[in-house]
Amino acid sequence: AQSVTQLDSHVSVSEGTPVLLRCNYSSSYSPSLFWYVQHPNKGLQLLLKYTSAATLVKGINGFEAEFKKSETSFHLTKPSAHMSDAAEYFCVVELGGGADGLTFGKGTHLIIQP
Amino acid sequence: DTAVSQTPKYLVTQMGNDKSIKCEQNLGHDTMYWYKQDSKKFLKIMFSYNNKELIINETVPNRFSPKSPDKAHLNLHINSLELGDSAVYFCASSQRAGGADTQYFGPGTRLTVL
């Protein structure tokens, strides 16, 4: 079985300060891991993905995430938050080789204070 | 050009009705998916489908049925709509089933059952 846990349902930061969105996963196999972002009333957009290559993954809009197998974590970070980053962020895991789709975390709502 | 499109964007209907949501992808992908996002923004896979097999999440009622007239389309038909079916439904596609292939999401269809 696979699952993904986003540790914070809401995160609030000031504009210009660092962002940390936490994600832990459990999987019996080597997972593929993703972060998706959903802006209000919009669809889902891929930020970045980890597929067993480099453990530090760089994505769009200045986001990056580090895969730590020993901690079963895949936290999302950004050095400096921008107002346009306010959105819902989903950590996602997928086992390789099947057609089972993605397993989503429950999401973290990122609030950016001016 | 929109990669994955869904129609309609909004759907309001009465309990007991039958409705369909259409999905089209112009990416040449082999696999398509339907996800349901509930009022708490939790996303869950409903179906994954390629030209060889349909995989159904066992929790999906049999009132829901995917129909694929060709590789570029995967429509979602819902019979006897219930209040609990109210949600946002997302279509997605990927080049292949499973693994590290990125899934591209449509903009979503907000279904409201009265």
Output the keywords:
heterodimer; A: 114 residues; mainly beta; six-stranded mixed β-sheet; 54% strand; globular; B: 114 residues; four-stranded antiparallel β-sheet
How would you summarize this macromolecular structure in one to three sentences?
The complex is a heterodimer of chains A (114) and B (114). Chain A has 114 residues and is mainly β. Chain A has strands at residues 3-6, 10-14, 19-21, 23-26, 31-38, 44-50, 56-58, 64-68, 73-78, 87-95, 103-104, 108-113.
How does this model look, in words?
The complex is a heterodimer of chains A (114) and B (114). With 114 residues, chain A is mainly β. Chain A contains no helices and 12 strands. In chain A, the strands form 3 sheets. In chain A, strands 2, 5, 6, 10, 11 and 12 form a 6-stranded mixed β-sheet that branches. A 4-stranded antiparallel β-sheet of chain A has the order 3-9-8-7, with no helix packed on it. Chain A is globular and about 40 Å long. With 114 residues, chain B is an all-beta fold. Chain B is 0% helix and 48% strand. Chain B contains no helices and 11 strands. The radius of gyration of chain B is 13 Å and the shape is globular. In chain B, 35% of the residues are buried. Classes of the chains: A mainly beta (114), B mainly beta (114). The A-B interface holds A 32, 34, 36, 38, 42-46, 49, 51-52, 88, 90, 94-104, 106-107 and B 31, 33, 35, 40-45, 48-50, 53, 55, 57, 90, 92, 97-100, 102-108.
Helix % of chain A is: under 10%
- Count of DSSP strands of chain A: 12
Secondary-structure element order of chain B, N to C: EEEEEEEEEEE
The major β-sheet of chain B equals:
7 strands, mixed
Could you describe the largest sheet of chain A, including whether it forms a barrel? Answer: 6 strands, mixed
Low-confidence stretches of chain A: none
Stretches of chain B where pLDDT is under 50 for at least 5 consecutive residues are none
Rg over CA atoms of chain A: 14 Å
Largest interface, with counts of residues having CB < 8 Å to the other chain, equals: A-B, 27 and 28 residues
